[in-house]
Amino acid sequence: MSAQAYVSAGRTETGKVRRLNEDALLVREDAGLWVVADGLGGHSAGDHASGLIVQRLAALQRPDDVCDFIDAIDDALEQVNAELLRFAAEREVDLIGSTVVVLVHDPAFMACAWVGDSRVYRWGDGGLRQITADHVHGQKDDETRFNTGPPGGQNAPAPGALTKAVGAQEPLFVDWVVAESVPGTRFVLCSDGINKEIDDGELGAECERGRDPQSLVARLFELALGRAGRDNVTAVVVDLKE
Asked: Each residue of 167-191: pLDDT tens digit?
């Protein structure tokens, strides 16, 4: 996998409120693979969950066929899901989990996977568009929690509860979407520490200013940490070269 088709940068910070950074990221230009994982701070050991996701995806070897690579990513996330469920049961805690977003480059397309409410945005012709769909019931507050009760009646999900997370339940369903691999297109992967402080309109305006990925990441952190910084902050920017 040649790194000449794209340039990227990423960063993660604890933020101004949380004591622990439970986010993790992966930038693998050698494999055309980028990942952001956000451990569930409303539950136990979110840093372990996000770190395990990144560790397993970092260890994957990219085969020649992109479909085989996508299958390997699915398999790795399923294995992590099962391990986190066992770990939570051993520790006798309700849940140890994480959200995740994954971006895979192929000359013909960009493949994006996600579980939870971390996001991938695409910026190009037509402006900014979120290409993931948050797995959240209603409006979320500052603390990310998974709905652990069954649906329906008094046990319906609380407003803002995640409906999917790695480590939450079996089987794990990973959503995938395909976007065009067009030179000049920009992708932004982020945990909700970004979109809590920066709305989509402002994010689109920052993407349009033509900064390189490293400079754009620095600007997003300047904005997020210059405000409330309520959550861990993580962003990865991938530009497809023209």
From this structure: 999 999 999 999 999 999 999 999 9
Q: What average pLDDT does this structure show over 209-235?
A: 93
C-alpha distances out from residue 108 to 39, 163, 176, 180, 188, Å: 32, 32, 16, 7, 19
150 vs 14 pLDDT, higher one:
14
Task: Give the start-to-end residue ranges of the domains of the chain.
Answer: 6-138+152-240
Which of 194, 227, 203, 207 has its CA nearest to residue 25? 194
Compute the C-alpha angle 192/109/60, nearest 5°.
Answer: 70
| Closest of 107, 110, 94, 85 to residue 34, by C-alpha | 110
Q: How far apart are CA 218 and CA 228, in angstroms?
A: 17
What are the φ/ψ torsions at residue 231 (nearest 5 degrees)?
A: -135, 170
Provide the Cα torsion 81, 87, 91, 94; round to 10°.
10
CA atoms of 184 and 202, how far apart (whole Å): 20
CATH of domain 6-138+152-240: 3.60.40.10
pLDDT at 11 over 80: yes
Among candidate residues 186, 238, 212, 236, the one with its CA nearest the CA of residue 35: 236
pTM score? 0.91
How confident is the model at residue 144, as a pLDDT? 55
How far are the Cα atoms of 87, 173, 185, 239 from residue 121, in angstroms, in the given order?
32, 21, 11, 12
